[in-house]
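Issue: ligand-bound run for magnesium ion - logging full I/O for the record.

Environment: standard queue, default settings, no custom constraints.

Inputs:
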Amino acid sequence: MPRAIVGYDRVRHVLDAEGESSYGDAVADKTGPAGLQARAVRFGYLDGTDVLHDVAFDVEPGRTVAVVGPTGSGKSTLVSLLVRLVDPASGAVLLDGVDVRDFRHGGVAASAALVPQQAFLFDDTVRDNITLGLDVSDDEVRAALATAQATEFVDRLPLGLDTQVGERGTSLSGGQRQRIALARALVRRPRLLVMDDATSAVDPRVEAAILAGLRDGGGGPSTVVVVAYRKATIALADEVVFIEDGRVTARGPHADLVTTSAGYRRLVDAYERAARDREQAEAVRAAEAADAARTGNAADADDADDADEEVPA
Ligand SMILES: Nc1ncnc2c1ncn2[C@@H]1O[C@H](COP(=O)(O)OP(=O)(O)OP(=O)(O)O)[C@@H](O)[C@H]1O
Ligand SMILES: [Mg+2]
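Outputs:
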């Protein structure tokens, strides 16, 4: 009882919290892909040092922009500002020309969806993890799953959409969890889709299929901002924003940046090498599993398909 009371008290504090964000009265009633601008955005966490300095870029409606940069350079911080999880210390983020702080409560969420770097799944069914209480039909859920390249594995689950995924989705692989999280964003038909390294654990071929589907308008016409590591993904974007140490140090199409920015070229080459090493390791593992299957050890063979378990270091 005492433990339950303490727990209840904590939950109540969260539920009763008013939050510190203030809202305006702009209504998010536009349709079609959203336009996005970051203007002189500066941001620091509570410890005081600035993580983003004077970050500025525009994304035209319907375009796909890749955000690329070394670890710790501020990519996740930047994308959390774009969907107003946090506000800049100075500068502004504009959605369709409107400062995101001027929208009504819920306005930004109605237009923009973030697929975070760490997908969080609830101990609930696949369906409820995708809808999160939004009133959508199973057809819409299935369309989102199709764009997220998740139809096949969801259909193979014992109860399909009604399968319980377990605490934090432990019954699924990393890549499967990421695809459920993507479907959760897509079912909301965002006009701005922001993916923070959201397909890192997905097989590269599947990732390419997801991006191709997004480009063709699966999940509705959308502007896409994607934090990306794979060259193939980056090359699919119309433009790259290269961030180092919280500053945009280069911008432009991938093909241009590899010639104009030495830092960018070094980073992308390093990603490429890491990906090749991983693929080789995976091929060895698959061969071993196939061997194991031939000698009658079926449990290992099952793992061979699940290349998407792999999470890059
Ligand atoms: N909640 C936080 N509180 C304090 N500092 C933070 C917080 N989140 C991130 N940082 C710091 O801000 C900087 C940028 O972090 P961020 O997560 O945005 O980088 P990133 O580019 O997304 O890195 P990665 O490629 O590893 O995901 C880092 O120095 C990090 O330590
Ligand atoms: Mg990050």
